Amino acid sequence: MKDMITEDIKRIKELIRLTEDDSNDVGKYIDSTYLKTSEQAGISDDETTRMVVKTIQDAMDHNMKLVMIRPEFVSLADQMIKEYDSDLLVGTVIGFPDGDGSIGEKMDEAMEAINNNVDELDFVVDYKAFKNGDLDKVRKEVSDGTSVGIAEDKVVKWIIESAALTSDQVAELTGLIRDVVIETIGEQKAGNVFVKTSTGFYKPEDGGPGGATVDDVSIMSLNAGPLKVKASGGIYSREDLEKMVDAGASRIGTSAGLEIIKGEKANTDY
Fold first, then answer.
1. Which residues contact 176 (CB under 8 A, 6 or more apart)?
2. Catalytic one among 106, 157, 196, 228?
3. Are 76 and 53 in contact (CB under 8 A)?
4. Which pLDDT tens digit goes with each residue over 151-166?
5. What is the model's pTM?
6. Cis omega before residue 226 (within 30°)?
7. CA separation (Å) from 193 to 29, 142, 250, 269?
8. How many Å apart are CA 83 and CA 91, to the nearest integer?
9. Which of 48, 131, 151, 267 fits as disulfide partner to 38, beta carbons 3.0 to 4.6 Å?
10. Percentage of residues of the chain with pLDDT beyond 70
11. 10 part of the active site
């Protein structure tokens, strides 16, 4: 009887270990995200801060890759991570969510985040300028933003808002960003730059998905190399995550990180 109990305990411990390993494996893909303002969420500023703190804490507790938050919370995240001696990375958004601010404004935002110890910078590319044919502006902001980030040893991502583009435009803009990045920092360092699908805030007029789709991630993956691809927006379950990874994404931005880690599906539209 004693031997049977001992074997049962061993099996239970192994099951726990495998479950933890699986969660850690999933967590390495996840940029746990909270980017809503108080107004967007319909809550007070204090409640927003509590939501950000919870997002940071959950990401640390469940070994996620990164927490993605608004610039005003980068210092808070840096403080919490140091207090807990965590390996969690901190990312923030630049030119968010529309991407149509001036290049100077974006560079100022980026430098402020860098001074607050951010690890990764997710720029919203001026996809409207791209659609209007102002490719010189797009090239310059990609070159300037990439240079600023890489010079400070930061990972840089370029959000193209894929839901606002046709499939051909997704391929063209991804390729443009790739070419500018390689020209600016060289192919060897280009692996520290991503193209990213979405802000998570774009609402298509036809009511279609405003976030990542498998088709767009596949197109981006085919045109991005040696840059990497991040899928974000509309990813609520482990099944969603696995589909995006299979399509070529190496990072996943989601507000449902905790549910995904637990193998659940989040009931949210963000």
1. 130, 135, 138, 139, 142
2. 196
3. yes
4. 999 999 999 999 999 9
5. 0.90
6. yes
7. 15, 11, 12, 28
8. 18
9. 48
10. 90
11. no
pLDDT digits (tens, 9 = 90+) for 200-218: 999 888 777 789 999 999 9
Q: Cβ(66)–Cβ(120) under 8 Å?
A: yes
Give me the residue label for tokens 């981006």: 220
**Alpha helix (H) ranges present in 91-250?**
103-115, 127-131, 135-151, 167-185, 214-224, 238-247
- Residue indicated by tokens 């991503």: 194
Residue 77 has a pLDDT of 98
Listed in order, strand segments (DSSP E) in the chain are 30-34, 66-69, 89-94, 120-124, 155-159, 193-196, 228-232, 251-254
Q: Could you give phi then psi for residue 52, rounded to 5 degrees?
A: -65, -45
Q: 75 near 116, Cβ under 8 Å?
A: yes
Q: 230-263, pLDDT tens digit by residue?
A: 999 999 999 999 999 999 999 999 999 999 999 9
Is CATH 3.30.70.1450 what the domain over 28-262 is classified as, yes or no?
no
Domain boundaries, the chain: 28-262
* Whether 173 contacts 127, CB under 8 Å: yes
Block residue for tokens 């804490």 = 57
The reply to whether 13 belongs to the active site is: no
Q: Which residue has the tokens 């001992």?
A: 6
Which is catalytic among the residues 31, 106, 119, 122? 122
Q: Choosing from 36, 157, 228, 230, which is the catalytic residue?
A: 230
Active site residue 230: yes
Beta bridge partners of 94: 123
